[in-house]
Structure formats: C-alpha cells, structure tokens
Amino acid sequence: MREPIFHTPIGEPFIELQSIDSTNKYAINLAHKGLVQNGTVFFAHNQYAGKGQRGKLWTTEAGKNLTLSIVLNPYPLKLSDSFKLSYCVAVAVSDFFKNYCGNEIKIKWPNDIYWNDRKAGGILIENVVGSGASDVANWHWAIVGIGININQTVFPDDLINPVSLKQITGKEFDVLQLSKKLCAHLEKYFSQLIVDTSNSIFDQYLDSLYKKNEKVKLKKMNRIFEVTIKGVSKNGQLITQHAMEEVFEFGEVEWLIDKTDVNS
Prior knowledge:
- This protein has 264 residues and is of the alpha+beta class.
- The protein is 25% helix and 29% strand.
- The protein has 6 helices and 14 strands.
- The strands form 3 sheets. Strands 1-2-5-9-8-7-6 form a 7-stranded mixed sheet, with helices on both faces. A 5-stranded antiparallel sheet has the order 13-12-11-10-14, with no helix packed on it.
- Helix 2 crosses helix 5 (175-193) and helix 2 (82-101) crosses helix 6 (200-207).
- The radius of gyration is 18 Å and the shape is globular.
- 37% of the residues are buried.
C-alpha cells in the first residue's frame, strides 16, 4: 500500500539529458524499475521522438524548445481524480506562459496551450499504476510530459497551427532557465491542488478555456457539426450546446481548426 510521502519540490533533482527519444518513455521505464523519486524532472536538449496526445508524435527542433517530464507521486489524489492533475498542470503552464506573452494564452480542452488560435504547447500525463485494494494505492506515479515551443521558428508543413514564444515576442530565450522557472510554477500549483477544497484552480481552468461561449466545429467519426463550447465538467468531459446539450469524453471528438501559415 502506498504511504504518504515527504513532498520533494518539483525540479529536485533536475536531470539534463542531451538526446533521448522521449522523456516520458525514459521516466516511465525508470519508474517501473523503482529508480525514481517524487519531483524528479528529466529535461531533454534533444527529444527526437516525443509523445503527443492520442498516439501522435511531438516534433521539436533540437535545442530550441522546452521538453521535459516530471515524476509525481500524486498522493493523496485518487486515480479517479486524474483530471484534477491534468487541469492543475494546464493552469500552471498557462500561468507561466502569460508572464512572457500576456493574457492571450488559453487552454484548449483538455490541456493544450494556445496563443490566439495557434498551439504553443502540449501536455501528456501517463500513469504508472499498480495493484492495490484502493484507488489511492493503485496510482503509484504520474509522469507529466510537457512540450512548449520556445525558440523554434520553422515548423513542418503537416502541423496545422504551431507557434513559439519567439514568434510571439520576437525575443530569444534561455530554454534551460525557462524550464526551471516552469518547475517553480508547477510546484506552486501542485502544492495548492493537494490541499485545495475551494476548486480555485478548476475555476482558473474554466476562465482560461479556449473558445468558451464561442462556436466551433467538431468531428466525431464521419459527423461534422457546430457547437458552442459551454465548459468542462469536473471529471473532464467537454460540455457543448447546439440543439441540445451534449458532452464528450477526451478522444471522442476532433477539433476542426483552420490551418495557418505556420512559418510566418
């Protein structure tokens, strides 16, 4: 049975990897071997086969972007509370990003980071789950993968709408320094989450929701339809309105977003 732990701050230790296929894959392998501790961050200078949502690749130019994975013991959260961790991380990342490019930053459900209508970052949380008598005991580790476009200005043509911090601000940034600052934001919000009874972080998530109260096009299998984004439920379902209210699980629908000139 998993016991409460002393909470080591996120980013202690902070481990730099020169080149790796996927920081999430690397962290998960170590977690299964019992070779990780809470708060460990694995930062990659070059991640050449990063993992995105729904089995997609996260492509990134070596040395240009923020690519890291955080090992968290999510106690006292339950596995059924996993969306709490998802929205907490999304709020922390968006809050961090706002320091450099203002309040145009939004969170696209469930946890992509958007500037206007362009994707600046993504989050992938993978769980290491064991056997146990309770939901709490089962959730051994959460591996929080974060990718943010920082200094890259040329992107593959098959990406619909990426944007980097350099494109937004016109400035070059120290990626390693930004990564450590991001860890401080994550530590602040995660520490708040595990004692929060007011839902204040969830309220921030809803306030930052991309296209809230606006019409968007969604695709479900061969059905394309227009809905108004109304919000997100506390268990992570997207709440929409058209002729009637309809909710969707993550992975059930695809957003249809117009392609932009990604290298402008």
